[in-house]
Amino acid sequence: MEYLGSCLCGAVSFEVRGDFDSFYLCHCRYCQKSTGLAHAANLFSQSAQLVWLAGADAVTTFTLLNTRHSKSFCKFCGSALPNTEVSGLLVVPAGCLDTRVSIAPTAHIFTSCKAAWDERLEEVPTFEALPG
């Protein structure tokens, strides 16, 4: 399988060649802080290959000292990008992919850190665009 992805400003584009092993929704405090969200949505692969098509020099990586938490992002727009800094794993933020992902999330992880407001979200009103 081949997946294409890019950052928000278009400076960085990449291809992932191969299959993903798992898709985790991580609720740890590190992921909450680094995404600004209730959880990160990352695809993992031990065998897929990452190829930077453009903008490899615009990719910056931050690794939190004394942890396995590492995040790559575009230095221009801040978009999350694939990372290979964690134990030989390819970690791809699902939202940076332009190709549709057919794998469903494998599991929610680190739910003991789940944000207090991340409950019963199916009861929250929904809108197809910004409400007026």
Features:
1 helix, 11 strands, mainly beta, 3-stranded antiparallel sheet, Metal Binding Protein, Guanine Nucleotide Exchange Factor, Chain A, 5% helix, 132 residues, 5-stranded mixed sheet
Explain what the structure shows:
This protein has one domain (2-115): Beta Complex (Metal Binding Protein, Guanine Nucleotide Exchange Factor, Chain A). It is built from 1 helix and 11 strands. It has one helix at 29-35; strands at 2-6, 13-17, 22-26, 40-45, 49-54, 59-63, 70-74, 80-81, 83-86, 89-93, 107-109. The longest helix is centred in the N-terminal third of the chain and has 7 residues, at 29-35. The chain is globular, with a radius of gyration of 15 Å. It starts with a strand and ends in a 23-residue tail after the last strand.
Give the topology string: H per helix, E per strand. Answer: EEEHEEEEEEEE
Rg, Cα atoms, Å: 15 Å
- Poorly predicted residue ranges: none
What count of structural domains?
A: 1
Percent of residues in β-strands: 35-45%
**Spatial shape:** globular
CATH topology: Metal Binding Protein, Guanine Nucleotide Exchange Factor, Chain A
Strand order of the largest sheet: 9-10-4-3-11
List the helices and strands and how they pair.
Elements: E1 2-6, E2 13-17, E3 22-26, H1 29-35, E4 40-45, E5 49-54, E6 59-63, E7 70-74, E8 80-81, E9 83-86, E10 89-93, E11 107-109
Parallel strand pairs: 3-11
Antiparallel strand pairs: 1-2, 2-5, 3-4, 4-10, 6-7, 7-8, 9-10
